[in-house]
Structures are given as C-alpha cells and as structure tokens.
Amino acid sequence: MEPFRSVRGGGVRAILAASEAELLRSLVGQVMDLIEPDAAKAQDLDELEAILQADAAETPTDPVLARLLPDGYRDDPASSTEFRKYTELSLRASKHESAQAMLDSLPEQGGKIQLTPEQAQAWLKALNDVRLALGTKLGVAEDFEQQWDGLAPKDPRRTAFEVYAWLGAVQESLVRALW
Predict the structure, then answer these.
(1) What's the Cα-to-Cα distance from 32 to each of 12, 37, 115, rounded to whole Å?
(2) Which long-range contacts (CB under 8 A, 24 or more apart) does 81-87 make?
(3) What is the pLDDT of residue 88?
(4) Whole-angstrom distance between the N-terminal and C-terminal Cα of the chain?
(5) Checking phi first, is residue 17 left (phi over 0); if not, alpha (psi -120 to 50) or beta?
C-alpha cells in the first residue's frame, strides 16, 4: 500500500494492491453482516415490531457485537437497556452506512483511491469497527506487541495479528493525511 496523502483542495489519496482491496472488502463485508439491523430483514410489520421489541433492549451475547454496540451504562443495567432500546438501531444503521460508503469508494481491483473528507471519515469509522471486531476475536490487549511477538512462528493467529497491525497502519496513515 502507498500510504494516504493529502490532496490539494481537500481529501486524501492512496494506492492499494488488489489483494489489499480484496482483504478490506472481505473484512468490512463481514462486519456489515454482523451489524446489519435485524429490522432490515423483517418481512412484514408484525415481524418488524417483534424484532424491535426483542432485540433493541438486549445486550448482545456475541463478544464482537457487544464490543461494536456497547452498553451505554455499564454499571446500570436498567438504564443501559432503556438507552439501547432507543439508540441501537440507529447505531447499527450508522455503522452499516459508513461501511457501505467505504466499499463504494474502494476499487474492486485495488489501485488509486481518492476520498473526499466525508468519505475519509466513513473509512475511519469502518476501519475502526473492523479493528474492534478483529481485536476482540484475537483478544488483543494493551500489550499487543508482546502478544504478537509471543506467538510461535507457525501459530495460525500470527497472520490475523499481522492483518490487525496492517489495519492499524492504514488507519494511522489516513488520520495523518487528514491532519
């Protein structure tokens, strides 16, 4: 990858290899599938109402989804349930929208990318969600470097840690370019 650079007049640009674009598409697509509001899948109004009543108040049991859709009040389950009831669907929709905006501006075969400031913000949000999801799956902690270095050379998680680090580098280059 050629890192993101500022573009005269606003926005940023970068160059991605085809394999990098394919990896981003896959990871962002997986997060989109995970966060897609169940309400979007409803077949009729009765099903939609049942989904809204059941899903919007429950803390997700999937650790990745719980990380992407955290409780509003960690020490107050009742307030957290009430908060989630009114905010979760819009949070899911917002995350889904950012991910879709990233996919829409990501060339399928890689190559040059030029993003408006709004598209760059969507990329930052989508990259953050992918990193949160992958980091949760990997159990990434503050001592990420030590965790990574402690993996045996043949450990299958090693590649996932490399992808996590690469995503961080992409995100960092985008942040620096926006500054």
Answers:
(1) 24, 9, 20
(2) 81/57, 82/57, 84/56, 84/57, 84/58, 84/59, 85/56, 85/57, 86/56
(3) 87
(4) 19
(5) beta
pTM for this structure? Answer: 0.86
Give 59's DSSP letter: P
* Residue 35: how many other CB atoms lie within 10 Å: 21
CA nearest 64: which of 131, 163, 137?
137
Helical segments of 45-116, H only: 45-55, 63-68, 77-104
**Residue pLDDT, tens place only, 8-44:** 988 999 999 999 999 999 999 999 999 986 655 666 6
Per-domain residue ranges of the chain: 2-178
Selection from 62, 60, 57, 61 nearest residue 80 by Cα: 57
Burial 95-133 (b: 16+ CB within 10 A, else e): bbebbebbbebbeeebeebebeeebbebbbbbbebbbbb
- Look at residues 137, 127, 128, 126 and name the one whose alpha carbon lies nearest to residue 159: 137
| 66: its two tokens | 């719980």
Q: Which amino acid is at 48?
A: L
Over residues 137-150, the pLDDT tens digits come to 999 988 888 888 88
Give the amino acid at 11: G
Tokens standing for 32? 């989109």
